[in-house]
């Protein structure tokens, strides 16, 4: 049998080409703490789940290839390399179900809430999708590089190691809860900007963010694997936009209806350009919904003022210019704004600028002085003082603690 260096080379190749994780587990019984560090977090978040998974691996025999489906529909392959020294390779997680609707039917077999189903969708969209034939070939290539002599291997399938229907175990719900709580922490800086823009009802900025995240593609629409991947990305952003609405206090019923409508449109389309345009319609719908909800108790004049402020935070803003824009006196606008919003116009502008800056600080590539200018504050020292006033820490401290 070959050495660990060969396995690491195979691991790197699979990671680069297929985004498929490969783990080499050595002396499993004496290295549980180390193993726990590098295994997928979903295998280690629940102690019973982790122990049962390890116990199963230990029972595997040489010259067998074990294909496992876990309690949340993810798949792994386990191969015992050395029964005496307890050395193994673990391949996965990945999905075997290429058709999204088939996966939905799998969800519906179990007693899951809508939030749990959405959390699973978010998790599954990041897993590589492979068929059994491809997995079989990958495993054969791995073993061919590991073993110096020809060996016959037997495939053994182990479906659903932990039953979702079991009333005695809540393991699956703990795993799904972990996915859901971890969801927003893992979004990229640009996704965070998109998330913030939607919460602000800023269609233009949200559209610019999305264009960076998912540029228009010229991939052949007949390529099902690529279009499935593209649809999965749109489903992810549909979920992200829905989450933005939830945090703004929008009715769950209304948001779910909007979410389902978008989901149906995504699944019905098999045209890249149509799907690309769909996201901008989604942005408009979610932004309008949030803006209407946030501003529904304000007078038309205050609504216009708030919208103008939120869309022009990077520009110079003052009460006089706002009043001139809407053909009213500065005193009247300031008094009405204070009465309805319970904040002065200047205070509201400052609050929104600091909110936007917290979003931009997530992007470590942006210098803080540039962020200051991007939110309409040309004086960096003033920006720092203002930021500390609202956030109780400097921009640098905030970035250090939150990125």
UniProtKB/TrEMBL annotation:
Name of this protein: Transcriptional regulator, AraC
Record flagged with keyword Cytoplasm: no
Domain of life of the source: Bacteria
InterPro entries to which the protein is assigned, alphabetical: Homeodomain-like_sf, HTH_AraC, HTH_AraC-typ_CS, Tscrpt_reg_AraC-type_HTH
GO terms for MF: DNA-binding transcription factor activity; sequence-specific DNA binding
Keyword annotations of the record: DNA-binding, Transcription, Transcription regulation
Keyword Transcription: yes
Chain ranges of the HTH araC/xylS-type domain: 303-401
